[in-house]
Prior knowledge:
Number of strands of chain B: 6
Distance between the termini of chain A: 13 Å
Distance between the termini of chain B: 54 Å
Oligomer: heterodimer
Strand order of the largest sheet of chain A: 1-4-5-8-9-11-12-15
Structural class of chain B: alpha/beta
Order of helices and strands of chain B: HEHEEHEHHEHHEHHH
CATH class of the domain at 41-180 and 255-261 and 296-399 in chain B: Alpha Beta
Number of domains of chain A: 1
Shape of chain A: elongated
Radius of gyration of chain A: 21 Å
Number of strands of chain A: 15
Amino acid sequence: MTRIVPNPTARFALALAALAATPLACAQMQSAYSENVLKIGIARYDPHSRTDGVHGIGVPAGADADVGNATTLLLTYERMVTPNIGLEFAFGIPPTIKAKATGSVAFLGDDVLSAKNIAPTAFVNWHLFSPGDAFRPYIGAGLNYTRFTSVKSKLASEAKLGDSYGLALQLGANYAVNRDWGLFASVARLDVKSKLVATGSTVLTTTIDFRPLVYSVGGYWQF
Amino acid sequence: MRAFRSWGAVALSLVYLAACGGGDPAEPGTGSPAGAPTTKGTFTAVVSFGDSLSDVGSYSPATSLAGNGQPPYFGGKFTTNDTSNGTPTATPLGKVWVENVAASLGLVVTPAQVGFGTTSVACPAAAVPALAASCTAYGQGGSRVTDPNGIGRASGALTVPVVTQIANHLARFTTFKASDLVFVYAGSNDVFTQFGAFTTAAAQIQASAAAGTITADQANQQLFAAQTASQAAMKIAAQQEVDLVKSQILAKGGKYVAVMALSDIGDTPFGNSLPANVKPVLSQLSQTFNLWLRDGLTNQPVQIIDTYAIFKDGYANPARFGIVNNTVPACDAAKINAITRGAVTDGSSLFCNATPGAPYNGLRTGADVNTWQFADSVHPTSGGHRIISSTFLAQLQAFGWI
């Protein structure tokens, strides 16, 4: 296979143009490294939530809620625009997250809130070392969008969680098993903040800062 | 896991919401009415629907001096009644806010119905032809929003609910007029009813917990459920009142319509008699009613008079309103008990006469109807009513209506 090493600057511009139009536009081009990386893995969504307190009529002082962990299937696609820089788009099968009552209302028990969160995240990753190396750590920064669906509360006939946009940071490493296949592990920190409005006989509100760490492990295929 | 309660931020956001008037569409009860008149009205009648706070003498016959339902009466309103205009008359002089507001507009307002027990008369003022149209004070002690079983009905109070009060007005006048100044001030007796249901349930739950038949967590869960049920009932009452305002007042020609939110009944001698952990339940029932009232009236062409904020301010700053005592009822339960020969034991101001020197005077020794806020455990003195009417008049002025 003939590999052409293009001018990095020109390639970057080309890649951006390709992303803007269609990634297939440059599918014919062969490069010194794999341009496309598909990952599949297990992600552990581990929130370190805190709230501004639960507000509403009759809510006792010290009422609070804590969001539990969730595990889901993670899928990502990364487009390498240079040997060291990739644009990664991560999404997962929306996991169901649950919150339990804590503080002065702990007696209300578990699962006072459940929701599915759809959290696509885009990263710009910087990969250390060179395309041929087996072990390549990377760091990334980007944006997370989180949308909550199927929001339910046993305390309210109707519950809504607002959409969230926030910064995303990640730290990870790829380990190449062979030229096409490998393993990866990463940890990501997302800024996810959402206002809950639960409407029943009264209205409960709280702003939840989920502060999740997402631990992921899995395999990748690059081409 | 830490709880961060930031009341400062909440207060700021409330100020912001109040300033912009829009509220959060996703959060019920944060909006405001819109579209009420902003110009001065030419009023020919004060049309008032409500309960004891707006009752201008419906139950006077219960206070018949002769005990036969006939005048003269020594009481009749839920305040410090005053019969000092010569001999006691059928319309005692201690005024409630509805009368004060009407008087300041140069209008007369009389009870839509007067009676007690099985006998009642509609619009007794019509005996004087010039007053035939004045019987538009529908408020009756004990009345609820839609439930005819009001407080005191078992012992003779009429407690015609607001739904029927409005229906009676429409039966008589067909429509509301642009020259009607309409007040709807109801729900407090729904608060008392639901509070009673809660305390009954709570007593049982606490007895079970004390006996060890349920755990502390189970007791808390059941108390929470009982409180939620009482709040749900207040939500329904508020939504029913909203429906009445929309379909029976606004849709029937009402233009100048003021709807009162409920005050915190915790800020009364009755409220203060409650254990510290029970009193908030009472306050929250008013809050729940107000939440759904505000939610239902969002973008409706009415004005809300927020008695919760107004009365709380007055209760916290009595001196500013010339009040020196807001904890002790001005009426003396023992005197009223004696005057009614043991028939009234709870010191109800309905039977409280404040005429100086009258043998049936029921005022507590040293009490002053002008500087003491409460006549009985929940109702204002005539001085308290004067403060209420002046704050309401200030609101009407702020609306641009007067």
